[in-house]
Amino acid sequence: MNGGWTVHLMVAPILLPLVVGAALLFVNERRRRLKAAFGAASSVALLLVAAALLRFADLPAEAGEATTGVYLLGNWPAPFGIVLVVDRLSALMLLLTAVLALPAQVFALGRWHRAAPHFHSLFQFLLMGVNGAFLTGDLFNLFVFFEVMLAASYGLVLHGSGRRRVKAGMHYIVINLVASFFLLIGVALIYGVTGTLNMADLALRIPAVAPEDRMLLEAGAAILGIAFLTKAGMWPLNFWLPTAYAAAAAPVAAMFAILTKVGVYILLRLSLLLFGEGAGAFAGFGADWLTVGGMLTVVFGTLGVLAARSLGRLTGYCVLVSSGTVLAAIGLEDPAVAGGALFYLVSSTLALSALFLLVELLERDLEQPEDEPDQVFADVEEDLEDEEDEVGVPVPATLAVLGLAFVGCTLLLAGMPPLSGFLGKFVMLSAALNPNGLGGGGQVSWQGWLLVPLLIISGLATMIAMMRAGIRRLWAPPEPIVPRVLIREAVPVAVLLAVGVVLTVLADPVMRYMADAAAALHAPTSYVETVLGKERLPGPRSAPSP
Amino acid sequence: MTDDTLLISMVVLPFVGAIIAAFLPTMARNAESWLAGTVALAALGCAFLAYPAIAAGGALRAEIPWLASFGLTLAFRMDGFAWLFAMLVSGIGFLVVLYARYYMSPEDPVPRFFSFFLAFMGSMLGIVLSGNLIQLVIFWEMTSIFSFLLIGYWYHNASAREGARISLTVTATGGMALLGGVLLLGHIVGSYDLDEVLSSGNLIRNHPLYLPALILILLGAFTKSAQFPFHFWLPNAMAAPTPVSAYLHSATLVKAGVFLMARLWPVMAGTPEWFWLVGVAGLSSLLIAAYFAIFQQDLKGLLAYSTISHLGLITTLLSLSSPLGAVAAIFHMVNHATFKASLFMAAGIIDHETGTRDMRRLSGLFRFMPITATLAMVASAAMAGVPLLNGFLSKEMFFAEAIETHVPSILDTVTPYVAVIASLFSVTYSVRFIQAVFFGPPPVDLPRTPHEPPFWMRLPVSLLVLSCLVVGAIPGRTIEPFLRLGVTSVLGEATPEFSLAVWHGLNVPLVMSVIALVGGALLSFALKRYLATSRDGPPFFRRVKGQRIFDRLMALVANDGPRFLERYLSTRRLQPQLRLLVAAAILAAFLPLWRQGPGLGGLTFPPVFDPIFTLVWVVGTVCAVIAAYQAKFHRLAALALLGGAGLSVCISFVWLSAPDLALTQLLVEIVTTVLILLGLRWLPKRVEGAMPVPLSLTTRLQRLRDLILAVLAGLGMMLLSYAVMMRPAGQTIGAYFLERAYTEGGGTNVVNVILVDFRGFDTLGEITVLAIVALTVFALLRRFRPAPDSIPPPMQQQIQRKFDVAAPDRDDGATLTDYLYVASVIMQWLFPIVIVLALYLFLRGHDLPGGGFAAGIAMTSAFIMQYMAVGTRWLEDRLRVLPLVWMGFGLLLATATGLGSWLFGYPFLTSHSRYLEIPLIGEVPAATALLFDLGVFSLVLGATVLMLIAIAHQSIRRIGPARAANEAEET
Asked: Based on CB atoms within 10 Å of each CB, which residue in B275, B422, B509, B870 is the most buried?
């Protein structure tokens, strides 16, 4: 990745969706198949690019080649220009995004992409924002991509309209706008104190911040943290989330499963890079807040999972449990725990995405009319009347397949054996209980002692709640209610779950990758050096004659 | 076959079979049975093949690395004890498959049944052969899941759903506890490997975490083995098809708990904690369940309680921590499996052939099915502990152990008495089972006429009963070597001398047996009359149902409680959420301040402020405050004032020598204000005075709190920004930009060079945001239906129209057409002028204030004026407005400019600038950034015009006919 055209692969995850999304604006809204084909092609390409980047990031470092890829945008050196950075963690998140994107898009072909104009463009822009947030090594650029991501998510959360969706969407928009406002304030404060925006440069400058400036920097970092914690869904800043996710159209919600993880990713990245062990007086800043907040989020999410009456809200609360778990685990500041948490993050995100799709399939033919006649925003159906009718025929086997998928989601989300959800939890718990490795002894921290029962109980509660919901939907109706499902709607669910199974089988190499990623995060020196040491190409920038 | 493949295929085969079974056709009862039977036989064969190696005293081991670096290897390990269980699981599994072939109705969807059945068998074998504790937990939970699916097989019955739900809840909870316990064990020992754990007995027993680990592991074992007080799930699980009950609830699943206790017996037993915890659970299960079993009216219910009681017996034996007790426990595991499986099958035959399992309705079946009756009688005799049958042997050993003193305590003292009473009860229910079903007058009014079942359905029962007889009569020649093998592998060095013989002489255990047999028989005759008509369940206790308590508890813990807490801990309203968010941010900013002590980084205030600048800010602040105050009811006023505040910011930029920012700010202020003004027309009206006057105290307090919060946030923000802006500029990256804007960026307007070159990537992102927002606004407004009160034309237009109609010489709508006529003509004329202005701003952008963004906004204002001046229809008839195309073009052009640098091998967005010689004009500075800026221009124009159109088209949109009719009726 250090020569030839492949070097530009690093920027492809951002440019590709941008170009495709922009190009789709020229295509007439009626030619949906063409739009969908472009969107899917883009996602496939993103998948390949992400896989290539992952392979690059996972090269063994001893070959004298740093495993951190740096891309100097505009050929301006760090810390002055904007850099993109690929390491194991960001490559992993890119791959996860691409893996989620394709099924969601295919699912949308069933009916959802007809619900409102520009679905495919917005979807591509969302991917651009998410990928950019994972790739960027610049704090302000991060804000920009957060904005891209949020703006696209505003459009998508309203996709399909309807009273419930618009109401939940409005809450979502207002809260996230305030949060991005905080994000901007935080970035401004940090820039004001340190005079730089590059994350690697910040890591160097923060330990040297004068004591009298400490307050400003900490206030900036804390406000920044509030913004990301809102996005990650930490209690008590997360009440909007289950409602908004449950109201969003299924493929949108399935893609939104990654959005909380963007917040989690940034917190993981920044807290270890800026406030890791080398940060002097700032070392460990906010870690306990993350742990406690994450644990409270798990508790709240678990309560919500048990209390939820509808499958949609249940899934929304599962999102909270998932991100709370990772937050709490990050706060332990133990690389081994973080490795397990990353594994868990991937597996639970896949399952959440699958479950959002599945829930729509399970509930589609028993929806009760909830929109009053004097609605402010018309519902989807209005526009669907003149469309070709593409509904599947009820097949009894459908229910068996959906039931199986539901069991799969349950196992993955509850962390029940034998699937990957369990493995991630197991590694987290085992690492928390054995800080120096299995058999290495060592004192278990109070966070570790709290984490173990919390994760076990939250998994159990998730299982009980999902079992209850599954019995109610799949077993209890006297006559089985078989939803009309198209193949292209069932396959995405199966694919997402199949990835979960693959993770289970290949647990060892995958977990090794996660452990390496986590270890690199906890020792950011190489990251900092690679980013700041990246030299620009000798330029044709001839100074213009006056 | 190597040992590795042998062990692994033993576990894997059933799962492969399960997958195949799932894909066979629905009606393929025979194919399914052949498949399942073959798989079970194959597993049995593997066990046979492994015997020589096991008998030689070794343990087979096979490993599949899985998560090896984290202590989780799939280790399959077969020693004598595991072998014994593997034989049971696969052997009885085969018999049950044979039985199920005839039991299941042709209408049942058997693929599901056999698929789950085989998967369960695989999981059970997995538990038995686990050489790693985490792996054991994995298979343990899998048995819970598959037993859930099997119990719920007939899910159209409410009882099956309930039974499945309860069993999964209880056993999976236990499984999770077990996971916790195993993790603790791993922490103590430093490994999850069974061999390592088994060799660390002293370490474990003396560790401070021993008790928590013990409690958690026992929770797992007790729930699985249905020990009191977790026993209630087992009777409920009887809603499962009988083959499932015969397999899961006698031979295998419920044995997993006692299997685990025996497995960990060498390292966990021998402490007072173990004795008390295990002993109390075992003894109470033994006694209580035996008592309950007497009063069951359902055949399977009786057998279920009897199972609990017998498992209690095994648990009690294990609690004693004596090697002989462990021997007896293992022996009874095997014996119980054989006789209880056969009894379940017999009960299933009776149910199948008569259509009922209610003992009050059954009677005198001996004459209809003599062979089955004989088999059942032998099996229940074994259950009762009649000599010459296997049950007798292990019960005698139990009595012998019960009278020994192990840990001097009251529990130890009562054990023999409890043992005798429980045995007496077990004789009673065994006699009752036989007597009520097979003897007495012929049955009346049965759903079906009873007759013998097919030979093949009876065969499994016969085989099992035969083994009861053989083991009971000649134990030394049949079971003893195998038992010894199993016991030795558990106890190792501590294996005691024991001999299995029918006759041990006249001793205390024999007397106890006689008392139990005689007393039990007498009791059953005494109760006969009562039981013939009594309700299900024991007197008094039938009200105290474990299940009901469990349901209450679950409702509280998993339903009502969380619902209450969730409601209490969260809100679905927007306002409190925002309040929390702002409060959190305030807290986040103030906590560091509080910790560091006040100071704000050496913040100082200048002695005097410039009076004019201060005035600008006072005006701006007043405007902002009033705007906030008026925002709810007087939107127009609020918006105008907001413009005022914006202007003061704009002036500040000029004041502080930032003309570029000022220009952009001004243009943005204008366009946004106009767009919002256009939107105001469609917002529903807000009526002042909807709140009751005077306001209640809570409302006023709430408002006060919000005010305080707002003031705090505002003041805090002010302080923070002041502190940041007034601190001496240290070494920032800004200096770099100033130095190189011209030398390397080719422009003298640093702001613009930053926007299109240094940080052009940010700009690319931001214009994308603008595009997205425009698309979203468009999509949202396309479906927007105005509130009813904003649909009729505004008051002013209504008055004008009335005037037109009233005046004889005017056409309808003429006043509106002429409205602001002069202004609109001027606005039309301004169109080219504003375009030139935009072009000017654009071209000079790189060196002087201006640029693509400002130019785009300026261009938009030209369009806004046209829309306002001549109306949407007129304009769009004459001018092709294609905002989507402009947007797409802008984005693509900006991106393509950036991509151009790839051709020269440079990173994305690398810019190049030089002077070009243009004829007539001369030397002109040209930078690739200009193309980028053109993209920005095009996008900004397209996006803002798209939003404008979205609003403008509201007024020309046709309201749906149904809705229009509605409106007409209302007005």
From this structure: B422
CB B737 within 8 A of CB B725: no
At B367 the pLDDT is 86
**DSSP class per residue in B427-443:** HHHHHHHHHHHHSSSPP
pLDDT per position as a tens digit, B356-373: 888 888 888 888 888 999
DSSP tag of B496: P
| Beta carbons of A320 and A348 less than 8 angstroms apart | no
Asked if pLDDT for residue B295 goes beyond 70, the answer is yes
CA distance B764 to chain A (A): 9
| Contact state of A418 with B720 under an 8 Å Cβ cutoff | no
By C-alpha distance, the chain B residue nearest A171 is: B574
Q: Cα distance from B868 to chain A (closest Cα, Å)?
A: 26
Q: How many CB atoms lie within 10 A of CB B212?
A: 13
Residue of B nearest to A7 (CA): B907
Containing A86, the helix (H) or strand (E) segment is strand A83-86
Residue A5 has a pLDDT of 66
Residue, of B212 and A283, whose pLDDT is higher: B212
**Sequential DSSP letters for B194-222:** HHHHHT-HHHHHTSTTHHHHHHHHHHHHH
Predicted pLDDT at B165: 92
CA within 13 Å, CB half, A62: 0
Asked if A385 contacts A446 with a C-beta cutoff of 8 angstroms, the reply is no
- Are residues B902 and A304, on separate chains, in Cβ contact within 8 Å? no
Q: Which residue is it, tokens 């009751």?
A: B692
B559–A539 CB contact, under 8 Å: no
Distance (Å) of CA B953 to CA B677, B678, B682: 15, 11, 12
Given an 8 Å threshold on Cβ–Cβ distance, is A191 in contact with B732?
yes
Tokens of B126: 């997995």
Q: How far is the C-alpha of B331 from the C-alpha of B398, rounded, in Å?
A: 10
- Whether residue A82 and residue B759 make contact (CB cut-off 8 A), yes or no, is yes
CB contact under 8 A, B563 and A306: yes
What are B523-554's pLDDT values in tens digits? 988 888 888 888 877 777 776 777 788 888 88
Alpha carbon of A233: minimum distance to chain B alpha carbons (Å)? 12
Confidence grade of residue A393 (pLDDT, cut at 50, 70, 90):
very low
Is the pTM here over 0.90, yes or no?
yes
Residue of B nearest to A377 (CA): B784
* Residue A276 bridge partners (DSSP): none
- A22, A132, A463 ranked by CB distance to B765: nearest: A132
Q: What is the token pair recorded at B140?
A: 């343990």
Per-residue burial over B554-579, b if 16 or more Cβ lie within 10 Å, else e, is: beeebbebbbebbeebbeeebeebbb
Contacts A–B by Cβ distance under 8 A:
382
pLDDT mean over B712-722: 88
User: Which of A146, A131, A521, A142 is CA-nearest to residue A330?
Assistant: A521
In A395-424, the residues whose Cβ lies within 8 Å of chain B are 400, 407, 411, 416-418, 422-423
Do the Cβ atoms of A471 and B887 come within 8 Å? no
| pLDDT value, residue A541 | 53
Q: What residues in B contact A307, CB-CB < 8 Å?
A: 559, 562-563, 565-567
* Mutation target vs B (from A141, A205, A299, A303; most B CBs, 10 A cutoff): A303
- For residue B12 the two structure tokens come to 């894997």
Mean pLDDT of chain A: 86
What average pLDDT does this structure show over A61-69? 63
Beta bridge partners of A71: A84
Q: Is the pLDDT of residue A539 over 80?
A: no
Which A positions 143-172 lie with beta carbon below 8 A of chain B? 144-145, 147-148, 151-152, 154-155, 158-159, 161, 166, 170-171
